[in-house]
Each structure stands twice: as C-alpha cells, then as structure tokens.
C-alpha cells in the first residue's frame, strides 16, 4: 500500500512538472522569447526539432511572438514528456503540435519537437480549427473510462498503419471507432472514417519517425511522425479514447515542397479548395 501510494505521488509530482513546463512553453510562444523556458534546457544535449529537422531554436517559430488563442496539453509520466496543441491567429495564423521531452532531473528539457503548420499546409485554416477545438471536451476521464497505455499506443499505431506497411492488412481490426467520432484535419471537420483507407496496402511505406506522448488520464495518444506512406511529410496525429472507443482525431499535416519521387502531394488542390485560407 505504501509503495503504491509512493508511486502515485511520484507520478502526480512528475505530471505537475510536465504541465507547468508546457505552460512556460506556451508563454514563450506568446512572447516570442525564450526567457520562460530556456533555463530548463539541458546544457550538454538539448535539441530543437521543427518539422522533423534539427533546427536552431533562436531561428524557429518560438522566436516569433504569436497570440495564442487556444492551447491544450497532455502529460506522459512514463516517458517524461508532454504534448501541447496550440492555435494562433495573429500576427500570422499557426496550428502547432509540440512534444517536450525531459531529462532525468525534474524540470530539465532535452528536446523541444514541433510540427508547425501555417498558411499553405494541408487543409490549413487556423480559425476553423480553433472553432472546432473549442467545442470539444477533453476533461480527465473517470478511472473506469480510461484506456490503458498499451491500448492507446495500439490504436494510434493501427491508425497510422492503415496507410501502408507490413501491418496494414490487420490495422483496421485494432481501431475501435466510436459513434460519434470526429476528425479535425485543418479546415475539415469530418467523421473519423471518412476518406480513410481500408488498409491492406503492405507495399506502401510505413509512417516513420514516430514519437509518442501518451496520457491515460485524458485518453490521449499523440504521435509526431513523417507521413512516408504518402510522402516525406511532417505530421502530428492525436486521438482520444473514451470508454474504449475513439472519440476525437486531430491531425496537423504539412505539404511536400515538390511533387518529385518520394514526396507525395504538393497540396495545390487543398490550397485552391477548402484549405485555402489566410487565417
């Protein structure tokens, strides 16, 4: 009993640190300065990654002051990491998904890892995304309704495996879509299964570079990745499971820079159609 209580207290304390640091990250994005978060960077092995590329954080999106209209964070007390989804409309529209990974010492950051979408990204419309997000409910789940860590990882992996790779043939059987199940994909607000492949294309490449943040209390699993099943495209996929069923799916997907081999769509159609937007 004492050991169980000690583990609970340790996880609660760890979660507090993860979420407090995520709040400092949001404050840094609001200000366009690193003062609130840089003291937490490890001196020897800190890395900043933006859209799947190692980047100088002083030249990245965190150097731009964005008025954050919405943010939501989850905490992975096993991996010592957090995930934050945020939306800014001014001075330039952005939808950003960021994982922050911590070192062994409380409050130390080894990695800030962001997928940064702005005008021109797939189906991009920050105002529409903001409206959809604000209508959702992401409150903590009661213990009987919480999925296990294994269930969450299996579900998010199966979702990505649908698009190709050796597990594509069986991926659909591991996806407990609920009713309703809503997917926000930039300007698109659709049923989770609309436009989804049936699976089975084992000849296509698997979605690669998967980095996970899993929060059982909120029923959330987020993966930052390269959507290599379609092209070399930076991407974030997050889902929420309630009472054993997938309730929400959020995607933040960039566009390939050209239409050459191994790059996939350039999103010309998306910019010309529903995804065309300055905000």
What would your notes on this structure say?
- The protein has 279 residues and is of the alpha+beta class.
- It has two domains: 2-134, Nuclear Transport Factor 2, Chain: A (Roll), CATH 3.10.450; 143-272, Nuclear Transport Factor 2, Chain: A (Roll).
- The chain is built from five helices and twelve strands.
- Strands 2-1-6-5-4-3 form a six-stranded mixed sheet, with helices on both faces.
- It is globular.
- The N and C termini lie far apart (53 Å).
- Mean pLDDT is 89; it is low at 260-264 and 273-279.
The amount of beta strand, in percent, is: 25-35%
CATH classification, class level of the largest domain: Alpha Beta
Please provide the ordered H/E string of secondary-structure elements. Answer: HEEEEEEHHHEEEEEEH
Question: Which structural category do the helix and sheet elements fall into?
Answer: alpha+beta
Give the tally of structural domains. Answer: 2
What gyration radius follows from the Cα positions, in whole Å? 18 Å
End-to-end CA span: 53 Å
Shape category: globular
Count all strands and give the number. 12
Q: pLDDT average, as an integer?
A: 89
Unreliable runs: 260-264, 273-279
In what order do the strands lie side by side in the largest sheet? Answer: 2-1-6-5-4-3
Tell me about the largest β-sheet. Answer: 6 strands, mixed
Number of helices: 5
CATH topology of the largest domain, anyone?
Nuclear Transport Factor 2, Chain: A
Portion in helices? 10-25%
**Any guess at the CATH architecture of the largest domain?**
Roll
């Amino acid at each position: 009993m004492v050991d169980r209580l000690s583990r609970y207290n340790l996880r609660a304390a760890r979660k507090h640190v993860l979420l407090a640091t995520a709040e400092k990250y949001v404050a840094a994005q609001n200000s366009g300065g690193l003062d609130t978060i840089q003291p937490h960077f490890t001196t020897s092995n800190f890395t900043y990654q933006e859209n799947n590329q190692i980047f100088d954080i002083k030249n990245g999106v965190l150097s731009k002051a964005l008025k954050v209209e919405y943010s939501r964070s989850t905490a992975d007390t096993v991996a010592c990491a957090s995930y934050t989804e945020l939306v800014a409309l001014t001075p330039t529209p952005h939808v950003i998904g960021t994982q922050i990974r911590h070192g062994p010492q409380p409050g130390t950051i080894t990695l800030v890892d962001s997928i940064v979408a702005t005008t021109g990204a797939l189906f991009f419309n920050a105002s529409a995304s903001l409206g959809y997000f604000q209508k959702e409910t992401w409150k903590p789940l009661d213990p009987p309704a919480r999925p296990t860590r294994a269930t969450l990882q299996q579900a998010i992996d199966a979702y990505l495996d649908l698009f190709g790779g050796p597990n594509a043939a069986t991926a659909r059987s591991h996806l407990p879509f609920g009713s309703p199940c809503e997917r926000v994909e930039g300007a698109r607000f659709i049923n989770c299964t609309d436009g989804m492949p049936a699976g089975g294309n084992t000849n296509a490449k698997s979605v690669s570079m998967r980095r996970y943040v899993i929060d059982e209390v909120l029923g959330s699993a987020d993966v930052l990745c390269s959507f290599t099943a379609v092209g070399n495209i930076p991407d974030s996929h997050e889902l929420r499971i309630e009472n054993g069923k997938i309730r929400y799916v959020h995607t933040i997907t960039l566009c390939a820079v050209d239409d050459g081999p191994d790059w996939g769509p350039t999103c010309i159609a998306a910019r010309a159609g529903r995804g065309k937007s300055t905000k």
